[in-house]
Design a protein that fits this description.
2 copies of one chain form a homodimer. The first copy, chain A, is an alpha/beta fold. Chain A contains 12 helices and 10 strands. Chain A has helices at residues 38-43, 63-67, 82-92, 126-144, 157-166, 174-182, 184-208, 225-249, 268-272, 287-294, 313-327, 346-364; strands at 54-55, 76-77, 98-100, 104-106, 151-155, 212-217, 257-261, 278-280, 299-304, 332-336. In chain A, the strands form 3 sheets. A 6-stranded parallel sheet of chain A has the order 5-6-7-8-9-10. Chain A has a two-stranded parallel ribbon with strand order 1-2. A two-stranded antiparallel sheet of chain A has the order 3-4. Chain A binds chain B through residues 169, 171-172, 174, 177-178, 180-182, 221, 223-227, 263, 265-266, 282-286, 305-308, 310-312, 315, 319, 322, 338, 341, 343, and chain B through 169, 171-172, 174, 177-178, 180-182, 221, 223-227, 263, 265-266, 282-286, 305-308, 310-312, 315, 319, 322, 338, 341, 343.
C-alpha cells in the first residue's frame, strides 16, 4: 500500500519540487513494486505470517558482509544512523556540524542563551537545504528494487534541541535540561522551530520514496514524566499530526509512523496515544507489561538488547524465542533497541533475523 | 540507635583491627551523641516529624559555601562520590586506577578476558588495603559532632565489574555486557569475587563509624530484566545478607541499608525484596506508582531531578511539593537521583532542603 506512487501534479507545496532521478517526469510511478510488505502490514496492525525484523546500523563495516548472507536478502535494512539524521536536520537550520569519529555529531558553536536562537535560519527551505537527502532516498528506493520497504528517519524535537545546546553527547544533558528549567519559553520557541523544520523534512522523505517514518526521541531517558509531558510529548504529537496532514495535502498516501523514545518507559501510555501506528520499546521494558500498558491500539517494536548479539547463536535463538513469546505473534516488529555495534559479527545478525522468522512462524502454528 | 558504639573487644574478624584515631582504646564509644536521627528513623520505617533529605556531591566547589548557609546546618551530607567509592574498591583488588578530570575513574589495564581475573588480588585484606578509608570515616564521624548521621557507600558488584571491563565510562557498556553474554561463568566468578570484597568493606565502614550504608547500582540502566536478574540482583541480595550477618558477627548493631539502582525501574519489586530497608528511585519513576509497586515494606528514597535545582527557587519549591505529595508523608527520604552538578548554585541546594523541610511538615498537618 505504501508503495503507492506520488502524483506530483497534485503537490502544491515545496515537496513537489524534489529532484527526479529518472529523466522525463513522474519518477515515483516508476518505483519497483514492493515484493515484501510484511513490515508495513505489521505496522498498520494487520495480521502477518511471521514477525518482520529490521535493525539500525551504527557503523558501516559489517554491512556488505551481511548483505552477502542469506538472511540479508530478506531483511529490513536502513542505511542511515539516527545521529546522521540529527546532523542533517540541524545543518539545515544553519548550525555548523562536525562529525567526530567515535563521538557522533559535534557542534562547535552550541546554543548557550536564548539570543543564540536568532542566529538560526528559519523558516528553512527543506528542499534547498536537504534536497540531497531526498535524492538519496529516491535512489535508495530504486536500488532496493522492491525487496523491502524503505524507512525514513528523524530525531524528535527534544533530542535535536539537546544536541544543539550540549554541542555533542553528554552523560547528563544537564545544559539542555538547564534550558528547560531556566528558560521554558525559549525552550518552547526552539522546540517549535525544530518541529516546523521536521514536518516538511519528513513529508519530503515520503515524497522522495520513504515508505514508513521513524521519529527517534533518543534522549527521552534524561527527562522524567513532568519534563517529558511539557517539552517532548506535545512536539512528538504535533509532528505526527502535521506530517499526516502534510501527506494528505500533497496527495500522498499515508505511511505508518513509528515513535521510539529510548528509555522513555515512564511515558509508554502517552506515546501510544500520540498519533503513531508503532511504538518502539527498548530492552529494559518487559514486552508483556508494555502491551498491557499500551492496549491494543498500536503495534509494538523491539526489543532485543543489542548486546545479546554477542552471545552464541544458540543463545541468540533462545533470547529471540523469549522475546517473541512475550510480545505475542501479531502487532509486533522485531528490532534492537539501539544500533548494531561496529564490532558485531555479521553472522550473529543473521542468526537474529533467522531466529525471528523461524520462531515467529512456529509461534503462529502453536 | 545507629550511633550505638562499637564494642571492639567483641570483634573476632578483621574489622577489629581498624585503626583508632583516639589514643588509648575504645574510640567508638567516644563518638558524639547523634542529635538528629530523623534520617535513620525514616530509613527504619518509623514515623518522623518531617521528611529527611540528603544529597550526594559530584564535585566539591559549592560545599564550603553551602555549609555556611542555614540549610547546611540541618542537612544530611555525604563527603564522597560513588565514583570515588568504586575507585577505592577496585584499587583494593589490585586494579591500577587513575582519576581523569571530567571522566571519573579510569583503568589503564581493563579486564579483557577471563585470564585477566588471575591478576586480581584475592582474597583482599580490606583493613590493609582500605584502612585509610576506615580512618577517614572515623574522623568524619567525629567531626560531624553528632549533627547528622554518616552514610557509608559502595558500588554494587555489576557496577564495579562494568568499570573494570570498560576501563572507564561508556555510553553502552557494550564490552562489559559482552562478558555477560559471552562468558557468563567468568562474569559470575568476577561478580562473586567483588561481593567477597564488598562485604568486609561495608562492615568495616560501619565498624569505623558509618551509621547507614548505601549500595549504588549506577549502571543498572544498561541491563534489562533478564540480565539484571542473573548478574546483578543475586549479588545485591548477597551483599545485604552477608553485611547484616557480618555486623552481627562482630557485635555491631544493624544499620539501615539503602539500594539505589539508577535506571533500574524494571526491577523495583525485586529490589524491594532484596534485604534493604530503603530503595532509591530516580526522577524517571513516578513516586506514587513506585509505592504501589513495592508495597509498604520499604522506605523509598528520591527523586528530584538534579537539574530541577537549575530552576528558580519558587519553581524548586513547587517541584518539591509535588514530589512530597507523590511520595506521601512517611517512609520517604528526599534525595536527588544523581550527584549535585558542579555548576549548581549553593543557594538553590539550600532552597531544595528548606522546601523539603517546610512542605513535609505542612503535609503532616493537613
Amino acid at each position: 500500500m505504501e508503495e503507492t506512487g506520488l502524483s506530483s501534479s497534485s503537490s502544491p507545496s515545496s515537496v513537489s519540487r524534489i529532484p527526479c532521478p529518472s529523466p522525463g517526469g513522474d519518477c515515483h510511478q516508476a518505483f519497483p513494486e514492493l515484493q515484501n510488505d510484511t513490515f508495513l502490514r505489521a505496522a498498520w496492525g494487520e495480521a502477518t505470517d511471521y514477525t518482520p525484523v529490521w535493525c539500525m546500523r551504527q557503523a558501516g563495516r559489517y554491512l556488505t558482509e551481511f548483505l552477502a548472507t542469506r538472511a540479508g536478502q530478506d531483511f529490513f535494512l536502513t542505511c542511515r544512523s539516527p545521529e546522521t539524521c540529527c546532523e542533517l536536520t540541524l545543518q539545515a537550520l544553519g548550525m555548523q556540524v562536525t562529525m567526530v569519529p567515535g563521538k557522533g555529531p559535534t557542534f562547535p558553536s552550541p546554543l548557550r542563551a536564548e539570543k543564540d536562537l536568532d542566529r538560526l535560519q528559519a523558516p528553512v527551505d527543506v528542499d534547498k537545504e536537504l534536497g540531497y537527502v531526498f535524492q538519496a532516498i529516491t535512489l535508495t528506493r530504486h536500488q532496493l528494487a522492491g525487496r523491502v520497504p524503505l524507512i525514513g528517519f528523524s530525531g524528535a524535537p527534544w533530542t535535536l534541541m539537546s544536541y544543539m545546546v550540549e554541542g555533542g553527547g553528554s552523560n547528563t544533558m544537564a545544559q539542555a535540561k538547564r534550558w528547560l528549567y531556566q528558560w521554558p519559553k525559549a525552550s518552547h520557541r526552539l522546540l517549535g522551530l525544530l518541529t516546523d523544520v521536521l514536518v516538511p523534512y519528513l513529508v519530503g522523505q515520503v515524497a522522495a520514496g520513504a515508505q514508513a517514518l521513524q521519529v527517534f526521541e533518543s534522549h527521552a531517558g534524561h527527562l522524567g514524566p513532568e519534563l517529558f509531558s511539557e517539552f517532548a510529548l506535545p512536539y512528538i504529537r504535533d509532528v505526527a499530526k502535521r506530517v499526516k496532514a502534510g501527506l494528505q495535502e500533497v496527495g500522498l498516501a499515508p505511511v505508518p509512523l513509528i515513535i521510539f523514545a529510548k528509555d522513555g518507559h515512564y511515558a509508554l501510555e502517552e506515546l501510544a496515544q500520540a498519533g503513531y501506528e508503532v511504538v518502539g520499546i527498548d530492552w529494559k521494558v518487559n514486552p508483556a507489561l508494555a502491551r498491557k500498558r499500551v492496549g491494543k491500539s498500536v503495534t509494538l517494536q523491539g526489543n532485543l538488547d543489542p548486546c545479546a548479539l554477542y552471545a552464541s547463536k544458540e543463545k541468540i535463538g533462545q533470547c529471540v524465542e523469549e522475546m517473541l513469546e512475550a510480545f505475542g505473534p501479531q502487532r509486533h516488529i522485531a528490532n534492537l533497541g539501539h544500533g548494531i555495534y561496529p564490532d558485531m559479527d555479521p553472522a550473529h545478525i543473521g542468526a537474529f533475523v533467522e531466529a525471528v522468522h523461524r520462531h515467529s512462524r512456529r509461534l503462529r502454528n502453536k
